[in-house]
Amino acid sequence: MAVSEIYHSTFKAMPYWWEAYHPTAQDPLELPSRVRVAIVGGGYGGLSTALEGAKQGVDCVVLETAELGFGASTRNGGGVSGGVNIGKSFSGKSLDPSSERAQAVLADGADAFSLIERLIAEEGINCYWKKTGRFVGAWTPGHYASQAKKIALLNQAARSEAYMVPRERQREEMASDYYYGGMVVERSANLHPALYYKGLLDACHARGIPVCARAPVTKITERDGGWLVQTERGAVQADEVVIATNGYTGDVTPELKRRVVPLASHIIATEELPPDLAASLIPKQRTLADTRRVLCYYRMSPDGKRMIFGGRARFTPVTPHESAPILHRFMTDRFPQLRGTKITHAWTGNVAFTLDALPHMGRQDGMHYLLGCNGSGVAMMTYLGWQTARKIAGVANQPSAFDTEEFPSHRLYSGNPWFLPAIGGWYRLRDNLDRGLASLSS
C-alpha cells in the first residue's frame, strides 16, 4: 500500500479526540491581580491542583500558554495505569524493584488510580471511563521472563491484579501472534482524554476558578514575600507558584527544564472498521502496549469502531504526515488484517521523561512543581496536582512518595534534548537485535 493511499479522504492532522472537545480560548478572562496560588500550565496537573485547592479553600488562578487543552492532556492515548514505569532511565540508572522506595512509589501509583476513579464519579465526568485492564506484550521470551518476576511486587504494592498470559493463549487478548505472550494488569482502565480534560475544566469553572487561556508566562520573580508572575496579558501577585508544565516546560523555569526530557509521542486513528473486524481485534477491549524500547500502545476508540494506535514513530517532533506511515506499518505488523485500512487522524504531543524514570513533585527555587510522568500522565498528573494542593493547604496526611528533594539533572543536559535522535536509533537497533535473536532461538 503506497504511502499516499493510507490517508482517508477526510484525513485531518489533528487529534481524533478533538472531534468531541476542541481546545478553546473561550471568553478571555481578566487575570486577578492577587491570588494565593498561581499555577503555570493548564493541563491535567494544573486543573487538578486548582480544583483540590478550591475544595480546601485556597484561591488559585491557572495560566495556560495556548488554548485550554491544547497540550498533551487532549493528545494522549487515554490509557490509565495503576502504577508507574520503574525501568531504565536515560541516565542508565534504575530503581531497585525490591526496595522500600519502589514499593512506596507503586503504592502511590495505585492511589493515583483510585483518585482518578473517585474524581470522575464525584464530578460526574462523562469520559467513557472503562476498567477493562491492560495487556503488555512481551517483545522477546526474555522480556516475558522479566515481566513474570515483577508480578508479585505489582500485586502486593500496587494492587495490580496482574498475571501472565503465555504465547499459546495470547489470542484471548488480541487477534495476533505478534508477541511472546505477555502480562495482564486488570487494575487498569481507559478513557476519552479530551472529555476527561473537559470534565476537569467544567469542575473548575463551576467553582469560579479562573482558568486563563492564551496567557503565556514570561517571567517569575520574588516580590513582597511572594511572587510576581508576569504574562503577556498582565501580571499576578501570588503567595505560591506551582509549575505544572510537564512536557512543555520552558525557559521561564530553566532549572526545571533541565530536569525533564520532552519526548514526542505520535498517534493515528483509523477509519471506522467493519463491526466483526473491530470486535475481534482486542476482544476484551483492553489497552495494549509492549516491552520494546521503542514502544507502541494501542486500543479501540470508546465506541469500539476504530483503532487508536500510538508509539514512538520518532523521538522528536515531526509532522503527522511523517509519523503516520510509520505507525500504520507498526499497526499492520501486529494486525495484518488491517492492511488496506485508511487513517482519518494523525497527531503528536510531548510527554515528559525524567532522568530517573520517576514522576516528581516538590519545590525548586521556592516554587512548587509537578513534572515528569514518563508516559503515565493521565492519572499521575491528576494525582500530583491533588497532592500539591493538599500540601499547600496543609492538609496532606503524609508526604507523597514522589515528593523528594532529589530531582536528578545532568551536567551535559540544559533542556535541549539533542541526544534523542541518537538514543532513538540505538533503541531501534537493540529492539531489532533482540527480536532477531529471539526468532533464531525459537
Helix fraction bin: 25-40%
What is the CATH third-level topology name?
Answer: FAD/NAD(P)-binding domain
Average pLDDT number: 93
Q: Describe the biggest sheet? A: 9 strands, mixed
Low-confidence stretches: 87-92
Q: What is the percentage of strand-forming residues?
A: 15-25%
Number of discrete domains: 1
Separation of termini? 30 Å
Element layout with pairings:
Elements (H helix, E strand, L loop, with lengths): L6 E6 L21 E7 L3 H12 L4 E4 L15 E2 L19 H24 L10 E4 L3 H17 L4 E4 L16 E4 L3 E2 L2 H14 L4 E2 L4 E7 L2 E6 L2 E10 L10 H4 L2 E11 L4 H7 L5 E4 L5 E5 L6 E5 L8 H15 L8 E12 L5 E5 L2 E5 L5 H17 L26 H22 L1
Parallel strand pairs: 1-17, 2-3, 2-12, 3-9, 5-14, 12-19
Antiparallel strand pairs: 4-8, 5-7, 6-7, 10-11, 11-12, 13-16, 13-17, 14-15, 15-16, 18-19
Helix pairs in contact: 1-4, 1-8, 2-8
